[in-house]
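Researcher: We are triaging several targets before committing to wet-lab work. For this one, the compound of interest is adenosine-5'-triphosphate. I'm pasting the protein sequence and the ligand SMILES. What I need is the predicted three-dimensional arrangement of the protein with the ligand bound, expressed as structure tokens, so it can go straight into our comparison scripts without reformatting.
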Amino acid sequence: MRNILEVDNVEIRYDQAILAVRDITFTVPEDGFVSLIGANGSGKTTTLRAISRLLELDRGRLTRGAIRFDGKDIAPQSPHALVAAGIGQVLEGRRCFLPMTVEENLRTAAASLRLSRAETRAALEKAFTRFPQLADRRRTPAALLSGGEQQMLAIERALVREPRLLLLDEPTMGLAPQIAETILETVATLNRQHGVAVLIAEQNVALTLRFAHDAHVLENGAIRLSGTAADLLHHPEIWSTYLGLPTTAPAILQAIPA
Ligand SMILES: Nc1ncnc2c1ncn2[C@@H]1O[C@H](COP(=O)(O)OP(=O)(O)OP(=O)(O)O)[C@@H](O)[C@H]1O
């Protein structure tokens, strides 16, 4: 399968000095679901923001290496052009317009992308089919939604343009386990049934490894471990560092095929 995203030996600095990430190399296949795992400050957000070219807003800069989306270097492209080319991003912190209703939030996203009326109607319908909870609350201001519903709305705002690659920055942060699972299940369905490639940054390692195909563990701005999600689920370092488990295989993981 062709790679929709290639991150090639990337180094990123902030303020021309602070080295945030280095030697980052990985790919996302066109039908891939790839997870970046790591503690606070390990470099997940920096990597995602580099891909959508939002780094400059934080005075960050790619100082080495290259990022290619769909075979093309992203460096000369604007964030807007990358959205038009097929990158959808759900930033950290569930960005939606709080005073606006669910429907208004989706319509605003559609309008900013200059979708036609028919396209907007279709996008709304798809959003409400994927997350029926949002359909029930379509006239509710986003401020009155639960954290999980706000995350669903933030994801749907990114999907309005039908991206080919969806970037998600810690979508399950602070959510109840059942809601976190619903969110990742929906993302996995999008990937499986609609062929949307996914790159997700997550601290919820156990959950993300259940859904991702491949994962990379970031530590202090560098990739420490890479592998299939199944391999990493069986890696003692993952159990001890990220799952808080002893380094002998817990029974629950024995059931998962290697
Ligand atoms: N705007 C910035 N200016 C300077 N340094 C920054 C900036 N943003 C991030 N960093 C530094 O870059 C490194 C990577 O941070 P980053 O936010 O990418 O990690 P993260 O894994 O996404 O963590 P979190 O889960 O907290 O978002 C950290 O050392 C952080 O302090």
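Researcher: Any quick observations?
Model: The chain is about 40% helix and 25% strand.
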